[in-house]
Each structure stands twice: as structure tokens, then as C-alpha cells.
Design a protein that fits this description.
Blueprint: E1 2-6, H1 11-24, E2 28-32, E3 35-38, H2 44-56, E4 60-62, H3 65-82, H4 92-100, H5 104-115, H6 119-137, H7 142-148, H8 154-165, H9 169-184
Antiparallel strand pairs: 1-3, 1-4, 2-3
Helix pairs in contact: 1-2, 3-5, 3-6, 6-8
Length: 186
């Protein structure tokens, strides 16, 4: 049996879900971003108990097929951009289609209908969030970040960054230095 979970986007979420499953006494074989593979069918009361416990942490058990598909798309994007060292070289549309076994047009239409933005816009938002993390870590320069996130150039990354955040990457980086200096003056 497979259960799909909404808003499960980090390793911390996975640990929380595993703890709740253990507390309730539900046996599972695998907990991934957005899903749980159970060893057996579970009684309705245990599923309801899990539903309530997860809701307290901002996670939600999904029943609706569209919502499940949207969550799968979101989890593939999150995993691809935030948790893999190398973003796939193929188009994101091809990658999503292969990973989820659906035609990209179908995925795109459902995602846009439910979320109100395109998958491409969603990917851009995640890439910019990842770029912000990498800028703050200060381990890579902007050229390396652009390459890592598959931007055609630093200018392309900078333009998207400014469009999404309203700041240039260099100004964003300077805010971190300014914030650190202010903490030192306390």
C-alpha cells in the first residue's frame, strides 16, 4: 500500500514521518519525499491517527488523484534541484515525463490548473531558491552556480534572479555580509 503526503519536502520531514509511523505502530518499507510504502494494508483508525498526527506538523495525507500527481511533480522538482549533485542534462519536461510516466502536456495542464503557475515557473522559483542557498554558502562563484543550475550564462541567472527576488545576486550576497557585520557589532 502506498500513501501520499503533501508538503513533505525535506529530509527532516522524512524523519518526522518515520517517527510518527513508529509511534503509531505502522510497518513501512520505504519513506520518500511525498510518499510512504507500507508493508501491509492498515486499518482505517490507524490511517486516521496518522492523518491527524501529520496535520499537526503541516503535512497532509492525500486522497485526490490530481493532488497526488501535483505533489509528485513538486517532489521530483524539489529532489532534482535541491538534493541531487548534478541536475539532469535533459530538458526538465523530458525528465518529468520519464520520471512520472505521463505526457508532459498532461502534467503541465494539471499543474497549471491546480497551482496557478506553470511547471516551468515553479522550476525557476526552485532554481532561484537553490541559487540563494549557494550564494549564501559562499563556496561557489556565480559562474559555477550558473553552470551547476544549468543556466546558459551568468547573465541569464542574474536576470532571472533579479526578476524573482528584485535583487541582483551580488546585492543579495552583500546583504549577508552586512547582516554578519551588524551581528558582530552587538
Amino acid at each position: 500500500m502506498k500513501i501520499y503526503i503533501k508538503n513533505m519536502v525535506s529530509l527532516r520531514c522524512k524523519l518526522l514521518v518515520k517517527d510518527e509511523l513508529k509511534t503509531i505502530g505502522i510497518n513501512y518499507s520505504c519513506v520518500d519525499l511525498g510518499s510512504i510504502d507500507l508493508n501491509e494494508e492498515i486499518p482505517a483508525e490507524k490511517l486516521n491517527e496518522l492523518r491527524i498526527k501529520l496535520l499537526r506538523s503541516g503535512l497532509e495525507v492525500l486522497d485526490d488523484k490530481k493532488a497526488i500527481l501535483i505533489e509528485k511533480i513538486k517532489n521530483v522538482v524539489t529532489e532534482m534541484i535541491h538534493y541531487t549533485d548534478e541536475i539532469p542534462k535533459v530538458n526538465f519536461s523530458e525528465y518529468l515525463s520519464e520520471k512520472l510516466h505521463y505526457d508532459y502536456t498532461y502534467l503541465s495542464n494539471i499543474f497549471s490548473e491546480v497551482r496557478g503557475i506553470t511547471i516551468q515557473q515553479y522550476i525557476i522559483l526552485h532554481k532561484i531558491e537553490r541559487a540563494k542557498e549557494l550564494i549564501l554558502y559562499d563556496e561557489l562563484n556565480l559562474s559555477e552556480i550558473a553552470y551547476k543550475l544549468h543556466y546558459s550564462s551568468v547573465a541569464h541567472l542574474s536576470n532571472q534572479f533579479k526578476k524573482v527576488t528584485g535583487l541582483s545576486p551580488s546585492f543579495f550576497k552583500s546583504l549577508k555580509k552586512e547582516r554578519n557585520q551588524n551581528l558582530e557589532n552587538l
